[in-house]
Design a protein that fits this description.
Blueprint lengths: L1 E5 L5 H16 L3 E3 L5 H4 L8 H14 L2 E5 L4 H17 L6 E5 L25 H9 L3 E2 L2 H15 L2
Parallel strand pairs: 1-2, 1-3, 3-4, 4-5
Helix pairs in contact: 3-4
């Protein structure tokens, strides 16, 4: 099964995590596109890389994928990609494009909101309701990497890919 691994990818910790997660998914037999590994669009020494080239390369990778793994965040590129895969699933070919699976590992999601604390004093992490609804209407959300792998294996088995 082809998996597009989407999520924040700009600081060194995010890059290391993405590369590690892509490797872990590959160890379980998945073919993975990780944008951090895409040399044609990530070589920062080149001056011919444009936003349009990045967009076109990532769209081609999304169309190659069966599942989009969306690391739950407020990263606008990640959410755009998730919406594109959701459209492919719901409007183009649901047998080929299986949907979006959220991976919510942010530790702030483990904390219960405290109604006695307002604004920035309430430490619970907010996720845009439209994103949450989209994930729930697609392949759902998992909270650990082990759950992610198990869910992808179940999706692959049920889709016969």
């Amino acid at each position: 099964m082809n998996v597009y691994l989407g999520g924040p990818m700009f600081v060194s910790a995010e890059v290391r995590y993405n590369l590690w997660l892509a490797g872990a998914l590959r160890e379980h037999g998945f073919d993975v596109y990780c944008p951090n590994e895409s040399e044609p669009i990530n070589d920062k020494l080149r001056n011919d890389i444009t936003a349009r080239k990045i967009y076109d390369a990532d769209l081609a990778a999304l169309e190659w994928a069966n599942v989009y793994v969306c690391q739950v965040s407020e990263d606008s590129g990640t959410n755009w990609e998730a919406g594109f895969m959701d459209c492919l699933n719901k409007r183009v070919d649901p047998t080929r494009y299986l949907g979006v699976l959220g991976l919510a590992t942010d530790i702030r999601l483990q904390q219960q909101p405290d109604p006695a604390r307002g604004g920035i004093e309430n430490q619970a992490f907010y996720v845009n309701s439209f994103i949450v609804g989209g994930l729930q209407s697609s392949l759902g959300v998992v909270y650990t990497e082990d759950e992610l792998i198990a869910r992808l294996q179940a999706i692959q088995q049920s889709a016969s890919l």
